[in-house]
Each structure stands twice: as C-alpha cells, then as structure tokens.
Design a protein that fits this description.
Elements lengths: L1 E3 L3 H8 L3 H9 L4 E3 L11 E5 L5 E7 L2 E5 L1
C-alpha cells in the first residue's frame, strides 16, 4: 500500500491496532510512505505513534530513506 506522507497519521489510525503491526508492515515493505521534500531527510521530518498499550514507534525520513525505531 502506498501512502502519501501527509495522510500517514489518518492511514495508521484507520488501519492498525497497535505499533507492532504497523512496524512490521513498514519494515517488510507492505506499506510504503512517499512524498516530496518531507521524506528526503533534509527537513528532519518524522512521525511518532503511540498505541493504546503505551508502546511507541517513530518513523524518520533520513537521507532519502525511512527508518522505523521502536
């Protein structure tokens, strides 16, 4: 699934029950976040996600690539 970076939060809320399944989908490539300068890594753009259990995940765009930190 391709998700435009500005719709990422809405997509996550509608699709994933927890950060574990979100992280797995991002890491295995079944979800691809795309965009313009936001995902190039030059602006320090990131998303922070916390689920109902209090577990967190951060998605950072660095050097043209995405990093998932849990």
């Amino acid at each position: 699934k391709d998700v435009y970076v500005l719709y990422f939060c809405e997509f996550v809320l509608a699709t994933f029950a927890d950060t574990k399944t979100l992280g797995a989908a991002l890491r295995n490539g079944s979800v691809h976040v795309w965009g313009d300068a936001s995902t190039s890594g030059s602006g320090g753009f990131h998303h922070s996600v916390r689920d109902a259990a209090g577990l967190s995940l951060v998605v950072e765009y660095v050097g043209g690539g995405m990093q998932v930190l849990a």
